[in-house]
């Protein structure tokens, strides 16, 4: 175990069964600054996770002058097994015996149902600050591939379904979204991803929204790398390119690319170890054009040449030279801690622009040194929880964003200190709920097949005094990096 992560201790019941364990991170505090306690039942299944941390008590003057330490404990997650969750909107979930039945964090509750084979057949989520529940259910083929998905949410205008079809190799070749509770005529929406797979598994073409959008790809006959991609809108029989890319490679390294829709050309070069050394974008027209040029050095000598035969390197970015319009260049250099290889300082055009600080776990705390005339508070602008996950971002003492996590460790909620959005809440990869500061709400159901998000169906709810429901299908043509 990394020494900076501290030590782990275990607790046992009188009969010798594991009752839980703790992990403590060492530091200059009265005791350990951060620790985690995990409780387990007699079967060794985790039932509760609690984190502890030390912090200075705030006072009426300034937190930095306080000498009183307080130990704060937070129950981060609880887990229950076998017995189904009692409050599911469609009744108790099935086949929960021997499985995780529900889990809870301070910002989310999730319950689960299963098939007789042990696959998740139903999942419900309740999100803090969002009214109602959000559910998704699955039906499977004999090979455990998802055959259909049903979405239900109190935040959506109607229910939606996704049906998938597969070829003889088990690869998805068509998906159809189906609306329920339609007003007027309810029709099947052909948001289909169609096309034949090549022998190496590459997908040459796609058709979306009943032929309203198409994607075509060409691959190298030698390496299988993507050489060209074109996505187009089709209206009235006329195809209008939205994205049109041509690429060239040396080995597996991208050396040039062109976008015919914006007339922008890109070029790339690499140093002896395959690290990006030169990149440029030129030409172009219209609002989407790009023009830039920069050179990178990963050598301690800060040499920018691609032909350097020998020089020491810690594989850190040491120098970047940016070329602006008119030919003016700006050098930005990076300074690292020689012992830990952590970034300490960024200097641009001879001026220190950023200074960095870290905690005992080597986690970045942000810039805690005043510069550019700012008055930076004592509290670090970046904070993490006991598991090393980012929880808070602030600037000059004001909240920028705070983050919370679900029982599986994924982001469940982002709260913002300013701007038009108050919070974004997530129910796995299935739902996103956006709460506006003016009281409006946006709800998205995400249609995923084989790890690819095909589309998002959304509902906009205005404030009660001007209630309005709208639903549409928004598809995103995904280009490959």
Explain what this protein looks like in three dimensions.
This protein has strands at 7-12, 18-25, 34-40, 46-56, 69-81, 100-105, 108-114, 120-127, 134-140, 146-153, 160-166, 172-179, 188-189, 205-208, 213-219, 226-235, 238-250, 253-259, 264-270, 276-283, 292-297, 319-323, 329-336, 343-348, 351-355, 357-358, 364-366, 382-384, 390-395, 398-405, 411-416, 421-427, 431-436, 441-449, 452-461, 471-475. The protein has a domain at 265-355. Strand 6 (100-105) and strand 7 form a beta hairpin. By secondary structure, the protein is mostly beta strands. Helices cover 0% and strands 52% of the residues. It contains no helices and 36 strands. The strands form four sheets. The chain has a 13-stranded antiparallel β-sheet with strand order 1-2-3-4-5-6-7-8-9-10-11-12-13, with no helix packed on it. The protein is globular, with a radius of gyration of 27 Å.
* Class by alpha and beta content: mainly beta
Which blocks of ≥5 consecutive residues have pLDDT under 50? 1-5, 59-64, 180-195, 368-378, 464-481
Mean pLDDT: 79
Helix count from the secondary structure assignment:
0
Task: Describe the structure concisely for a colleague.
The chain has 481 residues and is mainly β. Helices cover 0% and strands 52% of the residues.
Which key phrases capture this entry?
single chain, 481 residues, mainly beta, 13-stranded antiparallel β-sheet, 12-stranded antiparallel β-sheet, 36 strands, globular, disordered N terminus, disordered C terminus
Secondary structure layout:
Layout: E1 7-12, E2 18-25, E3 34-40, E4 46-56, E5 69-81, E6 100-105, E7 108-114, E8 120-127, E9 134-140, E10 146-153, E11 160-166, E12 172-179, E13 188-189, E14 205-208, E15 213-219, E16 226-235, E17 238-250, E18 253-259, E19 264-270, E20 276-283, E21 292-297, E22 319-323, E23 329-336, E24 343-348, E25 351-355, E26 357-358, E27 364-366, E28 382-384, E29 390-395, E30 398-405, E31 411-416, E32 421-427, E33 431-436, E34 441-449, E35 452-461, E36 471-475
Antiparallel strand pairs: 1-2, 2-3, 3-4, 4-5, 5-6, 6-7, 7-8, 8-9, 9-10, 10-11, 11-12, 12-13, 14-15, 15-16, 16-17, 17-18, 18-19, 19-20, 20-21, 21-22, 22-23, 23-24, 24-25, 26-27, 28-29, 29-30, 30-31, 31-32, 32-33, 33-34, 34-35, 35-36
């Amino acid at each position: 175990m990394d020494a900076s992560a501290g030590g782990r201790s275990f607790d046992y019941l009188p009969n010798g069964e594991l009752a839980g364990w703790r992990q403590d991170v060492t530091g200059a505090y009265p005791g350990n600054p951060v620790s985690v306690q995990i409780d387990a039942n007699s079967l060794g299944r985790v039932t509760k996770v609690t984190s502890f941390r030390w912090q200075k008590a705030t006072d009426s003057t300034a937190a930095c002058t306080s000498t009183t330490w307080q130990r704060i404990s937070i129950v981060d997650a609880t887990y229950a097994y076998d017995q189904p969750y009692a409050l599911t909107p469609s009744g108790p979930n099935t086949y929960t015996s021997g499985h995780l039945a529900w889990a809870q964090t301070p910002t989310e509750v999730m319950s689960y149902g299963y098939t007789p084979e042990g696959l998740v057949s139903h999942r419900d989520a309740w999100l803090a600050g969002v009214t109602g529940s959000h559910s998704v259910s699955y039906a499977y083929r004999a090979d455990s591939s998802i055959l259909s998905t049903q979405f239900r949410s109190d935040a959506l205008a109607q229910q939606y379904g996704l049906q998938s079809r597969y070829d003889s190799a088990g690869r998805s070749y068509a998906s159809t979204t189906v609306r329920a509770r339609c007003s007027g005529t309810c029709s099947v929406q052909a948001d289909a991803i169609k096309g034949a797979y090549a022998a190496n598994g590459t997908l040459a073409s796609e058709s979306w929204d009943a032929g309203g959008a198409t994607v075509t790809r060409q691959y190298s006959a030698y390496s299988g790398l993507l050489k060209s991609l074109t996505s187009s809108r089709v209206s009235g029989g006329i195809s209008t390119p939205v994205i049109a890319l041509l690429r060239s490679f040396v080995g597996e390294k991208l050396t040039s690319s062109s976008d015919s829709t914006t007339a922008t050309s890109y070029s790339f070069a690499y140093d002896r170890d395959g690290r990006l050394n030169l990149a440029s974008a030129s030409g172009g027209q219209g609002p989407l054009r790009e023009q830039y040029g920069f050179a990178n050095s990963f050598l301690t000598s800060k040499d920018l040449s691609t032909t350097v035969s020998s020089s020491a390197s810690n594989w850190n970015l040491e120098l970047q030279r940016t070329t602006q319009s008119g030919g003016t260049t700006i050098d930005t250099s990076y300074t690292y801690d020689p012992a830990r290889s952590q970034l300490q300082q960024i200097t641009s055009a001879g001026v220190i622009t950023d200074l960095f600080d870290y905690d005992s776990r080597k986690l970045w705390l942000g810039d805690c040194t005043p510069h550019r005339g700012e008055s930076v508070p004592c509290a670090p602008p970046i904070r993490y929880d006991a598991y090393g996950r980012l929880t808070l971002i602030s600037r000059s003492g004001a909240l920028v964003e705070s983050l919370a996590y679900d029982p599986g460790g994924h982001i469940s909620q982002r709260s913002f200190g300013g701007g038009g959005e108050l919070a974004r809440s997530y129910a796995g990869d299935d739902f996103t709920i956006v709460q506006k500061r003016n009281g409006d709400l946006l709800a998205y159901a995400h249609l995923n097949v084989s790890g690819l998000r095909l589309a998002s169906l959304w509902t906009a709810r205005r404030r009660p005094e001007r209630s309005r429901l709208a639903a549409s299908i928004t598809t995103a043509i995904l280009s490959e990096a």
